[in-house]
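FAQ

Q: What does a record look like?
A: Structure on top, sequence underneath. For example:
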């Protein structure tokens, strides 16, 4: 991710805004539990209402290209090979080899041991390398191992680190432990940007999603991310709406922008456009940019490419026209 002036500002934890809040477990708990509660019915109704919005013609074409530019093209399987990662990186740079006007994706997301392969293939293309770390997807490892995992990925060339929080600690109310873990991982990232994964399917309530959002932002995360893609439910519109409200409110309070990344289960162009409409309605134009909104996806890109081909040629391309990832 190319830093922008607002993204390179000192982290919220360093500005002093939240120094009193994070001084102790009790003060942090008071702050997080003092956040406005989420109206579940209202949240789900608003998300459903925004999902009914439709866009046409030139606006749809713009949205498809924007969504392609926001994709973190992902492979996180035990059977990943260097050949598969090289092919994925090539696709990220040229999603549609038959159409040079098709934009590249934002990043390729891989396990740390595949970072060097992805980095070598991507070269100076501008497509970033994101690496999952901190014992992804469970987060069950000692802190020194999590930090070593992060440093190894950064040393191999990762531009972005996607960490998972300790959901057990969070659900046990050990908020300060989670805060300090995020802050330490951020420090280990150096110049790499940090995305903080909540695994919202395990957080149980919308109120917890709001609390986790604020906790991660206060600790200095550059992005907040819904899911690993390994637990269901993963990304949903209501959960993403809560996270978008959180980053909007955080900027109003601190002046600092934080990005949002829904991941897992977003497979169609129609799905992606629903999320873009929500971003525009909740946060505004500033977040309609790959620096501030991403899709974690493996199958979404092909559907975007098929819809793009239909709009430019008038003909649908079959699913086998593009590579399967």
């Amino acid at each position: 991710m190319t830093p922008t002036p607002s993204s390179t500002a000192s982290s919220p934890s360093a500005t002093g805004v939240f120094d009193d809040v994070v001084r102790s477990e009790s003060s942090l708990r008071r702050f997080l539990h003092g956040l406005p509660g989420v109206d579940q019915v209202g949240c789900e109704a608003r998300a459903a209402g925004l999902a009914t919005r439709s866009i046409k013609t030139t606006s749809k074409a713009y949205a498809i290209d924007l969504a392609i530019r926001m994709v973190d093209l992902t492979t996180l399987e035990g059977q990943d090979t260097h050949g598969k990662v090289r092919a994925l990186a090539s696709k990220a740079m040229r999603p549609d080899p038959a159409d040079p006007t098709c934009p590249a994706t934002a990043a390729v997301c891989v396990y740390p041991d595949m970072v060097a392969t992805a980095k070598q293939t991507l070269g100076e293309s501008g497509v970033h390398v994101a690496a999952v770390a901190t014992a992804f997807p469970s987060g069950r490892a000692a802190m020194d191992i999590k930090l070593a995992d992060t440093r190894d990925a950064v040393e191999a060339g990762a531009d972005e680190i996607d960490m998972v929080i300790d959901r057990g600690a969070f659900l046990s109310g050990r908020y300060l432990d989670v805060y300090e873990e995020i802050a330490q991982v951020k420090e280990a990232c150096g110049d790499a940007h940090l995305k903080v994964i909540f695994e919202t399917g395990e957080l149980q309530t919308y109120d917890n999603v709001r609390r986790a959002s604020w906790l991660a932002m206060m600790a200095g995360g550059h992005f907040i991310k819904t899911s690993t893609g390994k637990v269901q439910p993963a990304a949903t519109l209501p959960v993403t709406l809560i996270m978008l409200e959180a980053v909007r409110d955080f900027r109003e309070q601190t002046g600092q922008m934080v990005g949002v990344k829904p991941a897992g289960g977003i497979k169609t162009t129609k799905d992606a456009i629903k999320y873009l409409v929500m971003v525009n309605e909740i946060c505004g134009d500033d977040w309609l940019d790959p620096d501030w909104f991403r899709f974690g996806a493996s199958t979404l890109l092909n559907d975007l490419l098929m819809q793009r081909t239909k709009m430019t040629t008038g003909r649908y391309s079959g699913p086998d026209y593009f590579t399967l990832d």
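Q: Is there anything notable about this one?
A: The chain has 13 helices and eight strands.
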